[in-house]
UniProtKB/TrEMBL annotation:
Residues reported in the UniProt entry to bind ATP: 41
Record keywords: ATP-binding, Kinase, Membrane, Nucleotide-binding, Phosphoprotein, Serine/threonine-protein kinase, Transferase, Transmembrane, Transmembrane helix
InterPro entries found in the cross-reference section: Kinase-like_dom_sf, Prot_kinase_dom, Protein_kinase_ATP_BS, Ser/Thr_kinase_AS
Keyword Metal-binding: no
TM ranges: 296-315
Database matches in SUPFAM superfamilies: Protein kinase-like (PK-like)
Gene3D superfamilies: Transferase(Phosphotransferase) domain 1
Domain Protein kinase: 12-258
Name of this chain's protein: Serine/threonine protein kinase
Origin superkingdom: Bacteria
GO molecular function annotations of the record: ATP binding; protein serine/threonine kinase activity
Amino acid sequence: MLNSGDILDGKYEVIRTLGKGGMGVVYLCKNIILGNLWAIKEVIQDKKNIDILTEANILKNLNHPGIRKIVDTFYANNNLYMVQDYVDGQTLKEYVKENGIIQIEKICRIVSDLCDIIGYLHNQNPVIIYRDIKPSNIMIMKSGKVVLIDFGISKVYKNDMPQDIDMICAGSNGYAAPEQYGSGKCCMQTDIYGIGMLIYFMVKGRTPYTGIEPLLDENYGPEINNKLKRTIQKCVKIDINERYALVEDLKEAISKILPKNEKVKLEILNDSNISKSVITKKINIKIMNRSMYDRSIKIFFCFTFAIIASIYILYGNKKESTISNTADAKEIVSPIVGSSSIEQNSIKEFIKKPTRRIRVVPTKGISSSIAQ
């Protein structure tokens, strides 16, 4: 066990202990030359650690924002030390202890991020199975993004590996799948089981007592979202074939639980590891664009209705004007023609006939010629 002020490899000063696990201790260290901070994991060599280089060999070839990179390895004090990126945040276990049960929107965001990380591991060739999903191995950064730590019992699986390769028990009680207790070979669904138990932890605020607990409806309160409950139960099925086949399937199921606006946030948060202010701005813009689209549709229909109404009113006024003019003409003619039916009929015929223009010819020249 190292103390504050100890120097490793001639350049890393130990500041404090970040965490302890079954595979070693992690320290926050400062590079005394450059002044930057690193998380250095001390892997203790004992009989249980069959291959202490497993984690280092796995991590050195990975490149994902949700996985800490290894920048250096060295031996000291008969132990292996791995220098990794320092993540400024707290574990999910610490977060729940401090804040209590997590709201469903945040649960979905955490699970979605975790599915991306695990999916990245499962898509490696050969496949990497993490095998130790639990609250203390999930880091929540200040930006809200998720980082997966401690690959101590992760394993690379090749298709030609013998079936009895996992007869050694590996995992954490309450989160390890049945096949991790020596009953079968671990697979991608092993990690899906762990995610299901992790969701249950976030919903209940505690580790499940047994693997059967999340499968029973009576262990969920009425406030638990039914879709989320069914998702958990599908993840933790005892039969591997009854679980989600891929983490992508689990992520899709989680996305269907979110409200509309939260889906927008999730899409943006999954784009990249960007600052909080930029995320907020993008979310507001995207939601505003959708609102503007809806408003534009409403305006279009209102404008169309107004045009139709205007045409109808104008057409109606024109018709009324024609009828009014005809009535006025009748009123003007009536006093002139008197009561004679013949004259009235003549006037009616006159009104019906089209108006003829009469050209007036000057009479001055004609009068002069007659006078001569």
